[in-house]
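Collaborator request, handled under Task 6.
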Amino acid sequence: MPLLSIIVPTRERIETLQHTLRSTLRQYSDEYEVIVSDNCSADGTSDMVTAIKDSRLKYINTGRRLSMCDNWEFALQHAQGQYVMFIGDDDATMPGSIDRLLRVFKTENSLAYSWPTPIYVWPIDGSSARVTHLPRIRQRSVHNLKEMAEFVIANGGWRYYELPGTYHAAVGRSILDSIRDRTGRVFHTTQPDVFTSMVVPVFTQDAIRVDFPVTVGGVSAKSNGGSNIAKDGMQHLDRYISEFGDYEIHSTLYPKASFHENMIPDCILKAMDLFPDFYRELKFNYTAMWAFGYRLGKYSRWQVLQARNDIRTYHPFSAVRFLYYSAIHDAAIQRRKLLGRMTSLGPFAMGAPENVDDFVVALSKWSEFADPAPEGTIK
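Structure tokens returned to the collaborator:
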């Protein structure tokens, strides 16, 4: 039985998927499996994947078009690993990083692991590839997930992305089985990664954050992350949303906000509803939620203030506190910009390789991102 299952859901992105798989299979260990869950693609994905001769690679096909959440559920049913990790079909894994992570599994027991994740932007609409984030590598640490979840709830969703779920993080299969036992399935809502991030703290208090990047997040033209960049990005996002059919957003959210504006809060609120024993003492901060949405550029301060009376018919909202929270986010944005100017992108300051696999190879040869273990000694 594999120690780790790496699941790659995909849908007609053969141009990026091939590089994702090349990077993910560039490891010495045979104690993990890579599952490609093809959401009924019609672009040659099946032929491309099955042509790769590697016993660690498994190809499955949904047979019909599913929502992302249902594709994740389908894929998980085929995973055999003690730990599970999802990555996107435009993401990558660092050379040797799975080997290193498997060693951590064996020496530092936990039910959840996270890591610093660089961000790579693929060439989009004629623009060159670039790197938008190289994280600072800190010492290995243990994070209190309950405290992190409490912060997210108290701040209207802010920093939800720091909680380890199953996306760019590794979670014990026992946690996922427990979620299914409690709710009938593992993944809920339109954002299965955000949902699981809010549920993992229910089943384990701590997570280990390792001191090396395991995966790299990719942003491509067809991804949700690239919807604000690509010329036809909103078309991809609208198609993604349409696949959820008559899905209903949480009843306390403002229905006149767009669907994609409500997606993240919806995940958090529904996780709270499904696990009331854990979240009973916490109250979601709706006012702070609007400030966080403002930070993400979903709307202006003035638009929120204009709608304040209508908003209050659905959930509590304070205009004064909204201005206070949005000022905090303004300061945080400026701080991030300052840190960004101070953080070196090294050899990638002027651009990056044209695919994510070449990027991770180049990154692994640079300073603190290099694997200190000698090649060939990990398996």
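The cover message to the collaborator said: "The mean pLDDT is 92. Residues 290-344 form one domain. Please let us know whether this matches your experimental observations."
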